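During the practical work, I worked with a single protein chain and the C-alpha cells that describe its fold, as given directly below.
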Amino acid sequence: MSLAETLFTTGEFSELCSVKKQTLFHYDEIGILKPQYRNDKGYRFYTLKQLETFSVIDILKDLGLSLTEIKEFLDIRSLPKTINLLADKEQEIDLKIQQLKQQKLTIQNKKNYLSESYKADFSSINIVTLPTQYYLLSDTIGDVTLKSSSHKLMSFINFIKHNHLDSGYPIGVILAKNNIQNDKFTEFTNFYIQVEQNIEQSHFTRDQGQYIIAYHEGPDETLYKTHKKIKDYLINTGFKMIGDSFEEYVVDEISTNGPDKYVTKISIAVTKI
C-alpha cells in the first residue's frame, strides 16, 4: 500500500488537519468531505489525498464562502471553475488590502496630528520650511462665519465620504490674508482637507516654502489672540505674509472634553522683507 493509500482514523486525520474530530463529522454529515472508507462498525477512515481536499475547503472558508457555497462548488467543481473562483477571490483580497492600507494611512495621520498637538508649545511661534502639499477645497463660503456656513460644511463632508478622500487629515478653514490684515478673524473663504499627491480631485497646491506655524488652544472665538501674536511676531522678525491662513482643527470634541482644550494649528506662507 502506498503512502497516498494509507488509511488514517478520524483522530489521526483531524490531527493532520489541526481540527477537532467533530469538524470532520460535520463535514461528513453535510457532504463536503466524506471519509474514503467506513468499516462495518461505522468507523471513518481518510487518506492522505483527502488532506488536499480539506486544504481547499479551509482556503474557501478563509475566503468567506459558507459551507453551503463550498458544497455547491465541490459538487460541480472543475479546473476552469476553480481557476475562475480563485481569480475572483484574488481580486477581492486585493481590494481588501487596498482598503486596509487606506485605513492604516488614516490612523497614522490622525495619530501623528494628535501627537503633534499634544507636544505643541502654545507660547511658541516658529517659521519652518514645509513641502508641497495638496488640498481639496469646498465651494467658496464667502467670508462668512462658521455658524452661518454649516450647510456647506455638511455638503463638503459628504463629498469627502462619498469619494473616500478621508486620509486622516483634519478638516480646516482658510482665512484670507486681507481678512487677517483687517482683523477679521472669524470670516472664512473655504473649508479644506489635505489629500495625498495622487488624488486627482485636489483643487489647490500649496507650494514648498517658508510658513509661520502657531498652535492655539481654546475655542474659535479666541483665535484672534493667536493671530495678533503672529502679526506682532512678523513685524519683530522682518517677515511678511504672502498667503492665506490655513487653520486645522487638530483636536476637537472627538479627542478632548470641552472647547477650552481644542487645538487649532495655524500655518501661513511668509517671506523675508
The chain has a mean pLDDT of 85. The longest strand covers residues 239-251.
